[in-house]
């Protein structure tokens, strides 16, 4: 029934970007990587909204300020490298528009981050220092500061400091050093990134309000649907109970995501328990939606009483999809994105994408077969519902394909996340589109006193609803007497197609 959730959320699993960037970035013995002539560790990237400059700024007392605070940042080197002092280890903080201000080259050659001997001869920088130039918008940026090891010391600690953010932008933090003797250096500690409204990263902050809105929307839809179910409880069909299940799961999922983001915004740390529950409810909802849509497409409860031999296959496909999507979502939402590499993420996305594609193919093949049955048996009421259902699905697919093309264009043009303020729209769109399709499904299959028109009926070739209308029309005309032998032949003639349909369904179920 919630076919919307199937195809739209399936496309979401293929194209939705990961937005997790914890506002408290912790470093646990992280190693530096060699990049060109420098050794680099990425400390974090977040969109931060500006706050008003303050001469008496304090991150501890000013709750409305934006800042990045460095706490207990400690660098440790192995004992065999401690017999001498070292070049400085720098913290380099810059806004993405100023990325060209980091690094340089001599005579237009290869760009380097650490000052080379050629650049030192030109007087551009000092050998072993980080090359950086003042920003055209603020001469105090980029922020570059550091600490050096003294002889025989195994650790060096940056002074605790808070840097106020007075310009809205995507900020990047790197720890960089140019000393080959420190190739085994590790960093520990944490940095705290804060926006004026809380600890949520700037590109995630709008999603908290969005999920609050979606929670309210699901509640309103639930009130309508549950009231209809209570009003016509004698007429409620199994398929309508499936819609009830999807709505309930959607309400729980949206509420959990809202509380997850609200807690994250308040503390700066992702609440693991709430996140796990939100992910699990979402995966259950998507799995149920896909399975239910597949069952509806196969005509379950409409033109056939059972799925026959396909029951175990449908269950197996659903369980496999749930396991694959749950694994992917947990790794994307619980913990930091950098916990697993791009190849690992690709390895997890591929099974979900393949299973989604299998669902789509099976659904459309089943819809085609169901349409043929409905047309053959002249079940016009059910055929009309399925036609509207298919049209809504077709529109959703066209919109989805168009949006995926836009996503690809958006990502290709936003390599450095400069448009981070609009990034929340991408996951929000998929939720809105799936919810819109859910509304369409609810309007088509809403419980009413005529709900049984859509249910399977074993008598009269499942065309009782259509013949009832004909019988009602015929009773308005006074019938003429029919000889008994003619009545018998007419009855036999009418029953013959019905028997053929019943035998055809029986043989089909045996084959399945």
From TrEMBL:
Q: Where is the composition biased (Acidic residues)?
A: 498-512
**Domain GOST seven transmembrane: residue ranges:** 206-451
Annotated GO CC locations: Golgi apparatus; membrane
Q: Where are the transmembrane segments?
A: 208-227, 239-259, 274-295, 307-324, 344-364, 385-404, 424-446
Q: Where is the signal peptide?
A: 1-22
List every stretch annotated Disordered: 476-512
* Entry's localization field: Membrane
* Pfam families hit by this protein: GOST_TM
Q: Where is the composition biased (Basic and acidic residues)?
A: 485-497
- Topologically, how does it sit relative to the membrane? Multi-pass membrane protein
The alphabetical list of record keywords is: Membrane, Signal, Transmembrane, Transmembrane helix
Matches recorded under PANTHER family: LUNG SEVEN TRANSMEMBRANE RECEPTOR, LUNG SEVEN TRANSMEMBRANE RECEPTOR FAMILY PROTEIN
Q: What is this protein called?
A: GOST seven transmembrane domain-containing protein
* Annotated organism of origin: Brassica campestris
């Amino acid at each position: 029934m919630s076919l919307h959730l199937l195809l739209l959320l399936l496309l979401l699993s293929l194209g939705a970007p990961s937005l997790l960037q914890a506002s408290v970035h912790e470093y646990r013995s992280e190693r530096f990587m060699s990049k060109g002539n420098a050794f680099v560790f990425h400390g974090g990237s977040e969109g931060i909204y500006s706050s008003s400059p303050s001469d008496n700024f304090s991150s501890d007392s000013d709750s409305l300020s934006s800042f990045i605070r460095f706490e207990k940042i400690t660098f440790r080197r192995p004992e065999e490298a401690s017999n001498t002092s070292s070049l400085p280890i720098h913290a380099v903080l810059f806004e993405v528009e100023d990325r060209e201000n980091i690094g340089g080259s001599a005579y237009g050659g290869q760009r380097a981050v650490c000052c080379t001997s050629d650049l030192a001869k030109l007087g551009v920088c000092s050998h072993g220092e980080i090359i950086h130039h003042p920003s055209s918008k603020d001469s105090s940026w980029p922020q570059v500061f550091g600490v050096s090891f003294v002889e025989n010391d195994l650790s060096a600690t940056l002074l605790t400091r808070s840097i106020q953010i007075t310009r809205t932008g995507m900020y990047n933090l790197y720890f960089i050093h140019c000393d080959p003797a420190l190739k085994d250096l590790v960093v520990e500690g944490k940095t705290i990134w804060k926006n004026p409204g809380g600890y949520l990263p700037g590109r995630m902050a709008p999603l908290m309000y969005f999920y609050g809105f979606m929670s309210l929307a699901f509640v309103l839809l639930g009130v309508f649907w549950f009231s209809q179910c209570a009003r016509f409880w004698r007429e409620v069909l199994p398929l309508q109970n499936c819609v009830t299940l999807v709505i309930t799961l959607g309400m729980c999922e949206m509420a959990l995501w809202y509380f997850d983001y609200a807690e994250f915004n308040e503390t700066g740390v992702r609440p693991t328990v709430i996140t796990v529950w939100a992910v699990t409810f979402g995966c259950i909802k998507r799995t149920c939606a896909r399975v239910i849509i597949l069952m509806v497409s196969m005509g379950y409860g409409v033109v056939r009483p059972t799925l026959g031999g396909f029951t175990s296959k449908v269950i197996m496909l659903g369980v496999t999809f749930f396991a694959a999507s749950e694994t992917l979502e947990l790794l994307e939402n619980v913990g930091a994105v950098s916990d697993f590499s791009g190849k690992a993420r690709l390895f997890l996305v591929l099974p979900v994408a393949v299973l989604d594609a299998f669902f789509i193919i099976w659904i459309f093949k089943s819809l085609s077969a169901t349409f043929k049955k409905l047309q053959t048996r002249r079940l016009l009421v059910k055929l009309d519902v399925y036609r509207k259902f298919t049209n809504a699905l077709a529109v959703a697919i066209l919109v989805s394909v168009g949006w995926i093309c836009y996503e690809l264009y958006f990502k290709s043009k936003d390599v450095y996340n400069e448009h981070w303020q609009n990034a929340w729209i991408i996951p929000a769109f998929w939720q809105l589109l799936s919810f819109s399709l859910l509304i369409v499904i609810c309007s088509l299959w809403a419980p009413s006193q005529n709900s049984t028109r859509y249910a399977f009926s074993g008598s009269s070739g499942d065309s009782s609803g259509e013949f009832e209308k004909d019988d009602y029309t015929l009773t308005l005309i006074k019938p003429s007497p029919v000889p008994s032998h003619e009545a018998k032949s007419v009855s036999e003639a009418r029953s013959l197609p019905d028997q053929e349909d019943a035998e055809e369904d029986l043989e089909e179920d045996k084959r399945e």
